[in-house]
Design brief:
By secondary structure, the protein is mostly helical. The protein folds into two domains: about 35 residues; about 230 residues, MetI-like (MetI-like fold), CATH 1.10.3720.10. It has eleven helices and no strands. The radius of gyration is 23 Å and the shape is globular. InterPro entries: MetI-like (IPR000515), MetI-like_sf (IPR035906).
Length: about 270
């Protein structure tokens, strides 16, 4: 096995890239290339981040963001999987409803944000609705395609074996749709986090987004705090994506696509 193919080398390479970006950020700040009124130095931002991590109100904001994101993804994702499965199993229902689903999928969530604020105000309910709405449509379509993507050979084999109803669904349809659904859930989780931050940033609901907005409005002295909060949201996004990718690989270890990923990572 070559050294460049090892997991440790890839990890060190990623850490090295991050370190290089941070070092470049600091160098450009010290050299005056970056305007100090718009871009604080890396050291100032990291120092502020360290201070923020010791404050209880930061963790309260993190909890509010996680709670809104989790509930929205759970509600929207669950409904999407159920509706997508039903539409995928019924061709007539699929042909009747898919134009509406495709249309609503293109509606920007930010376009309905004012309506959500009018109905619920800057509350948890507003965030949950926006996140659920945003993740529902793409995950529904992904589930439909997964349910309808059963291999013809497998379908014919199931017919020969006279598999029907629940047994056919659990042994044929679900294994075929699982990779599509898993990918859709992973993408929906990342999109849901973005929508949560947007709801807080624009809608004024409590969370990391509101912390960013508050620090921006506080003036240039709070610029390092603004960047610290932005870095936190970026780290949260990486953690969410990595966690769901890990779960996808573990839960679908039996599927060919995950075996190929594992073999390439070895």
């Amino acid at each position: 096995m070559k050294v460049v193919d090892t997991g440790w080398f890839r990890l060190l390479a990623r850490v090295g890239v991050i370190a290089a970006v941070l070092a470049g950020w600091q160098y450009l700040s010290v050299a005056g290339v970056l305007d100090a009124s718009s871009f604080p130095s890396m050291t100032d931002t990291m120092a502020e981040l360290g201070r923020q991590l010791t404050r209880p109100d930061l963790w309260e904001a993190v909890w509010e963001t996680v709670r809104g994101w989790g509930l929205g993804v759970l509600i929207g994702g669950s409904l999407a999987i159920v509706v997508g499965t039903l539409l995928g199993l019924n061709r007539f229902a699929y042909l009747s409803v898919i134009p509406v689903v495709e249309f609503l999928k293109t509606v920007p969530v930010i376009a309905i944000l004012p309506l959500a604020i009018v109905v619920w105000g800057a509350t948890l309910e507003m965030k949950v609705f926006l996140v659920a709405f945003g993740v529902f449509w793409p995950l529904t379509i992904q589930t439909i395609y997964g349910v309808r993507a059963v291999d013809p050979v497998v379908r014919d084999t199931a017919a020969v074996l006279r598999l029907r109803g629940l047994r056919k669904f659990t042994t044929v349809t679900l294994p075929s749709a699982a990779p599509f659904i898993a990918t859709g859930v992973r993408v929906a989780a990342a999109v849901g986090l973005i929508l949560t931050i947007i709801a807080e940033l624009i809608g004024g609901a409590r969370g990391l987004g509101l912390s960013i907005l508050t620090s921006v409005n506080a003036g240039p002295d709070r610029l390092p705090a603004t960047y610290a909060f932005i870095l936190l949201t970026g780290v949260a996004g990486v953690l969410v994506t990595s966690a769901f990718a890990y779960l996808e690989q573990r839960l679908l270890h039996w599927h060919e696509s995950q075996r190929n990923v594992a073999s390439k990572a070895a």
